[in-house]
Design a protein that fits this description.
- This protein has 137 residues and is an alpha+beta fold.
- The protein has a single domain, classed as Pnp Oxidase, Chain A, CATH 2.30.110.
- Helix content is 19%, strand content 44%.
- The chain has three helices and eight strands; from the N terminus they run H-E-E-E-E-H-E-E-E-H-E.
- Strands 1, 2, 3, 4, 5, 6, 7 and 8 form an eight-stranded antiparallel beta sheet that branches.
- The longest helix has 15 residues.
- It is globular.
- The model has no long low-confidence stretch (mean pLDDT 95).
Length: 137
């Protein structure tokens, strides 16, 4: 099995996108690119075992994902597409409200340099989704 620390650059430092794969209620697969971040233990600076994505109400992910949902994620190195990390994970829970809004702002800063997410929409609620990493490949 691969070691998460060997992928620190694409998990923490680079602006790599996560390709998030879920199965819709009718059994068809659904894959979308997604901004993400991963927990890093502040004490020892080690990468943790929870990855976070964000979505909004009304979207396919929001309609399918709930606690216990199984997810596959592929994260490709933006500098060389032949280097990637695959993750199998389980949704821990879904988080709404201020924490979810703050999370999309954190992701906006990581990916765009803007402190506030430019596409905030008053008609949708943001959803922060922590995913437990079950295995990597």
């Amino acid at each position: 099995m691969k070691d998460l620390e060997t992928f620190r650059d694409i998990l923490v430092e680079k602006k790599a996108l996560a390709l998030v794969s879920i199965v819709r209620k009718d059994g068809t697969p659904h894959v979308t690119p997604s901004w993400f971040n991963i927990e890093v233990d502040e004490t020892n600076n080690k990468i943790g075992t929870t990855i976070f994505i964000n979505t909004a109400t009304g979207r396919v992910k929001a309609n399918v994902i709930k606690e216990g949902t199984k997810i596959s994620i592929a994260i490709m190195d933006p500098d060389t597409f032949y280097r990637y990390l695959g993750i199998h994970g389980t949704v821990i829970k879904t988080i709404l409200g201020e924490e979810a809004n703050n999370h999309i702002d954190q992701l906006s800063f990581k990916y765009t340099g803007l402190e506030k997410y430019a596409s905030h929409n008053a008609d949708e609620d943001r959803i922060k989704i922590p995913i437990s990493i079950d295995s990597i490949y």
